Amino acid sequence: MRRLRRENVRVLFRETRLRVEDLIVPIFVDETARDKKEINSMPGYYRLPLDLVLSEVEECMKLGLKSFILFGIPKKKDEIGSEAFKDDGIVQRAVRAIKENFPKAVVITDVCLCEYTTHGHCGLVRDGEILNDETLEILGKVAVSHARAGADIVAPSGMMDGMVSTIRSALDNEGFSNTLIMSYSAKFASSFYSPFREAAESGYRFGDRKSYQMDFHNSDEAIREVELDILEGADIVMVKPALAYLDIIRRVKESFNVPIAAYNVSGEYSMVKAAIKLGFLNEDIVYEILAGIKRAGADLIITYHAKEIAMRLKS
Ligand code: PBG
To answer: How far is the CA of 118 from the centre of ligand 1 (A)?
Structure first.
């Protein structure tokens, strides 16, 4: 076996290749910001005002990164998250600006209410309960408003039952039959999201997300979630988080023949950055982690490390 590992030949036998095209860059566009604001718990990552989003996209495109997923932080929040489906909402404006300036960019939008509601939950709330069917109608409106602004792909992340079929019909009815759906299909209720809640201001006022996000002890259930999303019309299914869920990625890969995205989430990023900062680990682990996610079966990876990896792949 060791003959295969000799310095000059080993590259011939490399089974997994991480390509810059596989990476999706998360962007936080902040309507309340004048300048870029570093996210405390995510060193080196920022919330950006709209004008700086364009320079960020430009920088990424130069590195070969052309896919972006947008999260909006609105000025105003209310009970039903109305800013999420306004035609001139912060995300809708960002999509238009990116598409105008960089027609080749692939723009993905997160379709959820948590950043837009005062209570911070991903759906409408009544008597402390997160409502399913009442939320669906709003998610349809959010997705259509994103498609109208020019989004290529909408990504519902709220884990409401039936969200994919509702969004598919809403898009088709409004003439957006070419807009893809990337569903956060197997999204687990995870502590790995806590830095994101600071990043996107999506922390909740009461309770937790366990009535809609999955129990991390389960894997059969993830397969059921993915199967339903495929039947409802998802073009891409997602597993989230990634690192502690590589077995789920692999099972989805072996069970279905659809494109799979993995979300290398905020907590995974922060953990790595903290260890590097303390000198306990070095930067090489970033590439190793992403290669591992790819090897598990992910076609696409959403990651806050996209720029550093793109630079490494270039050199
Ligand atoms: C919103 C949403 C969350 C993330 C992506 N979309 C937070 C949550 O569900 O609490 C997490 C992303 C990350 O941690 O990087 N529903």
So the answer is: 16
